[in-house]
Amino acid sequence: MPPPAAARRPARSVHLRPARFVRLRTAAMCRRATLFALAVLVAPALGANALADGHAGLRLGMARVYILADNRVRVSEMLALERAARAAGRGIWGHPFYAVRTPAEVGRNLNSFQLVEGRVLDAARVRTRVYLNFGPDWRTDFMVTLDAGARRLFRDAGFDPLALEGRRVRVRGWLREFNGLLIDTTHPEQIKVLGP
Fold this sequence. Notes:
This protein is an alpha+beta fold.
């Protein structure tokens, strides 16, 4: 489902002064052929390469945090800014297209980046993979998976995904279909424990 027209339009009322233009610093293509770039606001008064406010988009609610396993610098700070904007309903967070989904309703948003909150009903390791199941039928219900590389990053962070059974969590990532709906996690910052 494409984003609504209102969400695709640029935010004309946002003024980020003294920034005068945006420069794309880095760009990468993910395996889903989605282009990611870091938009850097340049403030000429501070020098040609000075950053006016690298987190303004998050603070204003005009962006979601998308973390790559090999670039997790300042992720806690970015997630805090996103959380504050979401709680205040700023920017995209005021539009239903960007709402945090439940496992029961996420199916309408296949092949898109989603935030999903729910309770892990079952956590299991099968061969080299960990599965977090959010419903009783792993063949049709929403689940989260971790491959061996992700498991190593979780272990290094002191985060045992198998201990999530019975816990309420928020997971972020690309929603796809395979034996039901799933999000592949590649690093611990994709999962936030919300409660027991």
